[in-house]
Amino acid sequence: MKLIVGLGNPGQEYAATRHNVGFMAIDRLCGKYGISVHKKQAKGLAGEGVIRGHKVAFLKPQTYMNLSGESVRAFMDFYKVKVEDVIIVYDDLDTEIGKVRLRYQGSAGGHNGIKSLIQHLGTEKFNRIRIGISRPAPGKDIAHYVLAPFAKAEAELLDRALDITCDALETALEMSFESTMGKFNG
Questions:
Q1: Which pLDDT score is estimated for 122?
Q2: Is 120 part of the annotated catalytic residue set?
Q3: CA pair distance 5, 81, nearest whole angstrom
Q4: Closest-CA residue to 4 (of 64, 63, 75)
Q5: Long-range contacts (CB closer than 8 Å, 24 or more residues apart) made by 109-116
Q6: Of all residues in the chain, what percent are helix, strand and coil, respectively (each to 5)?
Q7: Which of 80, 107, 157, 166 is the most buried (most CB within 10 A)?
Q8: Are 155 and 22 in contact (CB under 8 A)?
Q9: Which positions ≥6 away from 22 have C-beta within 8 Å?
Q10: Is 31 helix (H, G, I), strand (E, B) or coil?
Q11: Residues of the chain predicted below pLDDT 70
Q12: Vertex 168, ends 112 and 131: CA angle to 5°?
């Protein structure tokens, strides 16, 4: 079984914010396949279904971003999911809005959700899809920026990035993550 995790913060006040693009991607892909992600499990909301013949579990940690690793680790332990079968989807300040980048290892790069995952998984080697949210203008507070909703002018770019992310996730179920990276990072 593959596990696709979207990072974000619980609650309606965060639903449309930049920090919640991981949740948005999960919602988009699951909506396409009629998969419900509402079961309370492992400090998160979970669901499972079949996509292109592959059994897939989905998780949206409800621990707030900074503690995401707790939920992911608990889910992985319960279902005995190997780290190589996990894909994490999250926002990235260093990627331009509308762009998507795939990686299979690396540091947290200042992202607290990824820091928590590295801590709880015990490795920096796990599959990631980073959805670009761009950096705020110089002098602007980063915490305020990531917790703010997207501007109307950014909506089309976000929509495109979510479509690309869903395509990449579907591809990663059928190909190795390395091959998927080659296709989508190229």
A1: 97
A2: no
A3: 12
A4: 75
A5: 112/65, 112/66, 113/7, 113/22, 113/65, 113/66, 113/68, 113/69, 114/7, 114/88, 114/90, 115/66, 116/65, 116/66, 116/67, 116/68, 116/69, 116/70
A6: 45, 25, 30
A7: 166
A8: no
A9: 5, 6, 7, 8, 60, 88, 89, 90, 91, 113, 131
A10: helix
A11: none
A12: 35
Tokens of 56: 């897939």
At what angle are helices 112-121 and 68-79 packed, to 10 degrees?
Answer: 40
Q: Please report the pLDDT score of residue 186 as a whole number.
A: 73
Rounded Cα gap, residues 86 and 96, in angstroms = 24
- What pairs with residue 92 in β-bridges? 132
b/e per residue, 120-151, with b = 16+ CB within 10 A?
bbeeeebbbbbbbbbebeeeeeeeebbbeebe
Residue type for position 34:
G
Spot the catalytic one: 19, 54, 111, 144: 19
